[in-house]
Amino acid sequence: MSQRWTTAVLDTSQPGGWAVARCAQGFAFDANGVLFPREWLKKQNLDVLAEHGIGHFDGEPVYLLELHGAADWEGVQWQGLRQFMMQGDFDTYKMLAYAAQIGTWAREHRFCGSCGQAMTQIHWERAMYCQACDLRSYPRISPSMIVLITRGDEILLARSPRFVTGVYSTLAGFAEPGESAEDCVRREVMEEVQVTVRNIRYMGSQCWPFPHSMMLGFHAEYDSGDIVPQADEIEDAQWFNVHDLPPLPASRSIARYLIDHYVAERLGLPAPVLPG
Predict the structure, then answer these.
(1) What residue numbers does the annotated binding site cover?
(2) Are residues 153 and 243 located together in one domain of the fold?
(3) Binding site for Zn(2+), residues?
(4) Residues that bind substrate, according to the entry (predicted)?
(5) Is there a single domain that holds both residue 88 and residue 165?
(6) CB-CB contact of 58 with 4 (8 Å)
(7) Which pLDDT score, from 0 to 100, does residue 1 have?
(8) What is the pTM of this model?
(9) 59-103 pLDDT, tens per residue?
(10) Does residue 95 share a domain with residue 186?
């Protein structure tokens, strides 16, 4: 089956196509969705910071207009990336997730990090170029580990003060320089709940709605230690039986996939599919 969304480097000097508009408030959408006729959108007096050709949706070229701020025009609203992830068409979310990464990169690389000179956009590859330094800057990805820890019929779940009230989830954290994915899992688990794990197994990945973030999902078995929640990071953490679970993350998240996959395994149910 062909993909509805595919990434590509498109030349912004070419006319036509569709466009999405993004600012700090999220993406613009109206009754017809997030895709607007590109030439029409560029006539709406938007304060455009950068434009990038990002790919094809249903075979049609798509461009990103990264804005300085939200525009106010009739019939159009703004919504954050996470809301698009949790509801609606997942192919549209994947397009917007990519657009958000490119928009953040474009915003952060207008000037050279070495000499401070203005950078120019290269049209044949996804790069910004500093002529003075002969430096190219490419979009970066920040890997983050997310792990479900299990002990027989029990799973270790925790909640951050930032979570929706009552919701518990898996542990997660960003990788440090020079650290393997498995080392990151061990370190984050120790930092957040003071337990050790073994038999770490990779389960899948998901582009997450934070700048540059790629979540790498793992399953690990409990090895030793008593739960001690990390101060200021973990509000509560405890073992839950697979037959008696608390409110869980939304179904499209990789955290929920890790939980549902293990529960299905223990209860003899069909394994879920990770959205992507």
Answers:
(1) 82, 112, 115, 125, 130, 133, 138, 172, 188, 192, 206-213, 233, 255
(2) yes
(3) 112, 115, 130, 133
(4) 82, 125, 138, 206-213, 255
(5) no
(6) yes
(7) 47
(8) 0.85
(9) 999 999 999 987 778 889 999 988 888 777 888 989 999 999 999
(10) no
Residue 132 maps to a domain? no
Least confident of 63-67, 240-244, 270-274: 270-274
Q: Which residues are annotated as a binding site for substrate?
A: 82, 125, 138, 206-213, 255
* Alpha-carbon distances of 232 from 6, 24, 158, 159, rounded to whole Å: 40, 27, 13, 11
Tell me, yes or no, whether 137 lies in a domain.
no
Which structural domain range is residue 66 located in?
Answer: 5-108
Instruction: Based on the fold, state whether residues 99 and 152 are members of the same structural domain.
Output: no
Instruction: Say yes or no: 96 and 23 in one domain.
Output: yes
Domain count of the chain? Answer: 2
Residue 127 in domain: no
The answer to whether residue 162 is domain-embedded is yes
User: For position 2, what pLDDT does the model report?
Assistant: 58
Q: What is the pLDDT of residue 83?
A: 87
Give the pLDDT of residue 209: 67
Mean pLDDT of the chain, nearest integer: 92
